[in-house]
Design a protein that fits this description.
The structure is a homodimer of 344-residue chains. Chain A is an all-alpha fold. Helix content of chain A is 72%, strand content 1%. Chain A contains 17 helices and two strands.
């Protein structure tokens, strides 16, 4: 069952319960806001330069689950925010994310992103870099509309951290000396920081105390970390044509994730040679992926990674306790549980 | 005589007059501020991710004339601004410029930038894209320090326009149907917008009336346009190892500039075939550049381009008349004249 690709309104609560997907529940609860965010995203992709809306349309149609703008809206609602500034900020967060994906595609030369041919495979590297820059600039224009220096400080700092994380990840590529600590630092920067910024925005807009701002920021940070850990396990599960993921892509690209770190740490002499050849030197035969997965199983690398994700899940749930019960809080709790239990 | 690469203090005014370079005069007048800007640039290039300061150091040492931060500082002084916010903003403007250059190097695959091997030739495309993103994010962090939504609106809008201009330029590449109007739009976006934002910042910081903000913004816009027009002529003059420019680089890369537009518009049938082969299809022999330059001379394409630049110079000078006479105003007038009369 794939994550839904668009805001959808369920006719009644029992339909919703059947879906069983807390992302759907959030889309349902935040339907009107998400519609406004989607309309704003489409509006701000406009440009007199034809390539920009063209490439933008491709990105929009590639969809994605809009998890980051959803979290931005949810955090605002959780804090009872009654204004409208969360709308441009949710769009801004999605633009930052999309710009990062575009630049990441250039970097990784990956051919597939979310089940569609990646923008850079279709248009080449040049437009991907420059349209990414455009989206990134537009994200700052959207932020300015919230008219708050505090908001701008949060999102500009998050952007720097994301870029730092992307560079740091580059340095760990094909590098078997990467430790669990290094790896956690990378995913905290490149993935969890944007979640953390998104969820901090709500209490900032609602003018809550520092305690609540910190709690929701930490919630986003832990949720984002758990999300990435699970993503890194799912990379080794079956192909997912809908998400555009090819099984074992990380292994092929020499991307260090926790399963690799665990398997390499426990490897015997022969296995160490295997990892050096396939992963460090990138000399891979078609059968090597299967062998790698066998080593992951031998050392329970997937289970241990999910265990780690669950420790972040627990910490994330703790932070939600600072907030009063509400349907949004319930949905965030369910989302947090779903992130570590999902199989897609 | 190259533009100077660093802030320098002249012992006395006669030394300065000998240099004859108004950029030197501005560096002299704004020496303390420029030192503060340079220190801030170095500080904000720091990161725990080793590749970032390493690549940053390369960029810093490649130097450049720091024209955009100089203009930021000059516009603040011209308006009698007494605060300190122009320092982070000048650094911010330089970071935006440097990020653009880094991404431009990826795009153009040019091997030389300012006389040194370009960052992407040394480190590859990946780090150039990601470190560019880092610089761009840091530029927004610096802007936030000026604590003004108006400032952030100006610079985020300028960033969007620059990115749009870069994409638009991509669409004109190898395209002989590009008109003078198209071309002027492109250079206005990709070059003049950052000049315009830099010079608008001064009256904004000093809390001047809209009239003065608009005047200095237009000054920057016209100056930047004149600057780019002259740059596009200088591309066809001799090699400049210090600036890292190879003669005729634009021709080789299929970059449409005004001399090409003029020569193609006036071309006879045989010449049109020449341009189609060499420029549109990119099939060039070593002797083609010489032939192209001969056509530029035949139709006075360089003179006409410089004439166009001079019309922008005149409009730029008009805008400076809204401001009271001062050494800074004198230096800006001289700079404006220098931009169109320089031979480097």
């Amino acid at each position: 069952m794939p994550l839904n690709l668009q805001a959808k309104k369920f006719k009644n609560t029992s339909d919703l319960r059947e879906s069983g997907n807390p992302v759907d529940v959030l889309h349902h609860l935040l339907f009107d806001d998400m519609e406004a965010v989607n309309a704003l995203i489409i509006e701000r992709l406009q440009s007199n330069v034809p390539l920009i809306p063209e490439l933008g349309k491709h990105l929009i149609e590639s969809g994605g689950k809009r998890l980051r703008p959803l979290l931005t809206l949810a955090s605002a609602h959780l804090c009872g925010y009654k204004g409208r500034h969360h709308i441009p900020l949710a769009a801004s967060v999605e633009f930052i994310h999309t710009a990062t994906l575009l630049h990441d595609d250039v970097v990784d030369q990956s051919d597939l992103r979310r089940g569609k041919i990646s923008a850079n495979a279709l248009w080449g590297n040049k437009p991907s870099v420059l349209v990414g820059d455009f989206l990134f600039s537009r994200s700052f224009e959207l932020m300015v509309e919230a008219n708050s220096i505090e908001v701008l400080a949060i999102l500009s700092k998050a952007s720097s951290k994301i870029a730092e994380g992307e560079v740091a990840q580059l340095l760990t590529t094909h590098n078997l000396a990467t430790t669990e600590h290094d790896y956690l630092k990378v995913i905290e920067s490149k993935t969890a920081q944007l979640f953390a910024a998104a969820t901090r925005l709500g209490p900032v807009l609602a003018d809550f105390e520092e305690l609540h701002k910190d709690a929701l920021e930490k919630y986003g940070l832990f949720l984002g970390t758990a999300f990435q850990l699970v993503d890194d396990v799912l990379d080794y599960k079956a192909d997912d044509p809908l998400l555009g993921k090819k099984m074992g892509n990380d292994f092929k690209e020499g991307k260090v994730t926790l399963p690799i770190i665990i398997a390499y740490k426990n490897a015997d002499f022969k296995e160490k040679l295997f990892w050096k050849r396939t992963f460090e030197e990138g000399k891979q035969d078609p059968s090597d992926l299967e062998e790698a997965v066998a080593y992951f199983h031998k050392y329970n690398a997937f289970e241990k990674t999910i265990e780690k994700a669950k420790s972040y899940q627990a910490k994330a749930l703790d932070e939600l306790e600072y907030f009063a019960g509400s349907p949004i809080q319930d949905a965030l709790i369910e989302l947090t549980n779903f992130v570590v239990n999902r199989s897609y």
